[in-house]
Amino acid sequence: MSIATANTPPVTTRARLFRRPSTLWLAVPGILFLAFFFAFPVARLLFLAFEDQETGTWTLAAFNRIVESDVYLHVLGITFKIAGYTALVSLLLGYPLAYWLATKPAFLRGRLLLFVMVPFWTSYLVKTFAWMIMLGRTGVVNSLLLGSQVTDRPFSLMYNEFGVMVGMVHAMVPLAAITMLPVMLNIDRRLVQAAQTLGATPIHAFWLVYFKLSLPGVTAAGLLVFISSLGFFIVPAFLGGPQETMLAQLIIVQIQQLLNWSFAGALAMLMLVTALVACWLYDLLFGISTVTGGSGKESSGTTRLIGLFVLERVAWATAWIGAAARRLVGPKVTARTLPFVTWTIIAFLVLPTLLIIPLSFTSSQFLEFPPPGWSLQWYETYLNSPVWIAATVRSFGVGFATAIFATIIGGFAALALSRSRSKWGTAIFAFFLAPMIVPRIVIAVGIFYLFAQLGLVATNTGLVIGHTVLAVPFAMIAVSAILKTYDVQLDHAAATLGANRVKTLFFVTIPLIRGGLVAAFLFAFITSFDELTIAIFVSGGINTTLPKKMWDDMILQLNPTLAAVSVVVFLLVTAILLLAERFRRSD
Fold this sequence. Notes:
Shape: globular
Structural class: mainly alpha
Strand content: under 5%
Distance between the termini: 46 Å
Helix content: over 70%
Oligomer: single chain
Number of strands: 0
Number of helices: 30
Largest sheet: none
Radius of gyration: 26 Å
């Protein structure tokens, strides 16, 4: 033993050991949990597509049925068309909104972002209910048009493709904007200034520099919106007609009405393969890391030349349109175009839900605008109903339990991945992110089949497990965002002073990232509280959750009690988001 080795203090050895990248063990509980309650049920559901339910033998009959019938191929085409249009329009609306937010100072951006976050986290049921009130034949839009004598008869705005697209885009624009914003915030605006210094016009500098650098965020948003739209069933079920039936609706019918697991598995495989192919093509072009705001892959060769040519043509066309607009309306008006567009988009996101509030105080037995009188009777109906209160209490209980487990699992996974340089880190990260990528209807049906055999259907335990699977990615991302700015040298200092890994974790790391943990807890709670897909299959009978109770009532008939419940849910989500934002800023 050398003199230098002999004189090395034990605490230095402890600190050196502490710095070894061996933290992936923290992700093991989450890996095991997702493996058994996510990967295994989904894989099992897909294998059912090749199994004959009567004989138990292997068969391709379910896939032959899909290929041979025009109905299922037609529904597949409708699903692709609606998902594609939704992604395109969401990007067109989400990009200026994200760009405008990125130009604001940090303190102001955090407050303005609530106009995007609140619609994003508001229940799909509440948003769909709002649009049913807006677009109905006696709804807000037709009432205003008839009252102002723009038309002498109501327009057909629901139960068609227009209604579906409005509801889908309204639901997906916040997701697109939130996905693009982190990439835009990382763009150095001095590059745009440098391009203008070298002779580029502001419009050419934007398209050839700024927009090109923001493309990873654009493509990531398009991917997430497209995949999320593939599994939609709430919006087309209430705002669409038979011609807008989507694949997820067929899967629900095969399970709940026909109990045809084999064919449901084949439809689920069709949807999952579509999502995975989209992810593969995206990763091939841009890199999957950009989904969470990372840097993308740089295109090269012919692809790069074609892209630059297209951007140059777009820049010239935009410059020509901008010059023509300035001549027609003046430079001051054109300078206000972006704020006007963004506030219009924000109004599109926020106003439909806000209009439910006055309707919840109506004295009428029906939903009509404007309300003929004011009353609290529908809040009294909600508060005095044992069924509604039981559903609300159950949603709260399941939500809190889900938030605890998801925060623990997702928090430890985020900590493990932030400290490790293992070659398995990327694969583990993708695995934890998978419940966000796999269509939710596929996860729900797979979990339902597993829980039916384990006796967990119609139990709170089953709901908590299913909701935790969906909430873990959100919790992990929330904690990961805080860990990006965490100074790991504080942990090293604790190790130097004699603390082991466990003490350092619980007495140094966790207290310093508590704001992120609280935000993760609140996001996981909202994910559970608003969740419907798992609840449709796992919750049973009268002992249901609040979203499932709303779903059942909306199918039967729209009534003012639903408006009162929607207001309660909306205000609760808003309060939780304000609380999460406060903790995020205080960290």
